[in-house]
Fold this sequence. Notes:
Oligomer: single chain
Mean pLDDT: 86
Strand content: 15-25%
Order of helices and strands: EHEHEHEHEHEEEEHEHHEE
Shape: globular
Amino acid sequence: MRWKERILLVTSDLPYGRTVGAHLESAGFEVFYAGNGAEGLCQVPTLQPAVVVLGSLPPELDAYTTCQRLREFSDIPIILLVPQATEEDVLRGFRAGADDCVSMPLRVAELVARVQALLRRMRRGGNGSAPNIQVYGDLIVDLTRRQVIVQGKLIPLTPTEFRLLSCLVQNAGDVVPHQALLSQVWGPACASELQYLKLYIRYLRRKIEPDPAQPRYIITVRGVGYQLNPMPPV
């Protein structure tokens, strides 16, 4: 029997959630359900889904807060269903730790496509056993095992953060334009969404830079893009 990737769908509207889940199952996924944020957070460690989809949830533990809590202990890809396609809602979703945001009312075919696209991006980098390790001063990036080490300490990154860092690593020393980074990390449809890029550059700097206000590794080239410094100062 072919192994199916698991999707955890967390929503208080379970009848509608099961309708959405039926479309995901038709696309070849195995879907599990949680009726609130607390239940969803409890299921993640044992279920280990490929993707978590966070939908409508009660105010006491809404989708944004559930996303933040999940990010405290897991880097599993998260798709957040945001109330509207406004910049404020989308940015709030990304700040909470989501890897992608889909606006309501939901177009189920779009959600299925975004889940599939997110998993394709996760699989990039090859499945070979040979390590691909890049070293830049105290920063070590293992592209094969998807690990980042700074000053001997393993640094947990979300899938989106790692994809962004990988793009910079694979072009170390060269300036990568804003649009190229956006297209590679979020997809061509987001090539003009500069706020996404700026937000995640901040996240990365907080995790890997000794002083995020004076970055050694990720250099801003104003008006153009970003560059990974292959020879950071000691």
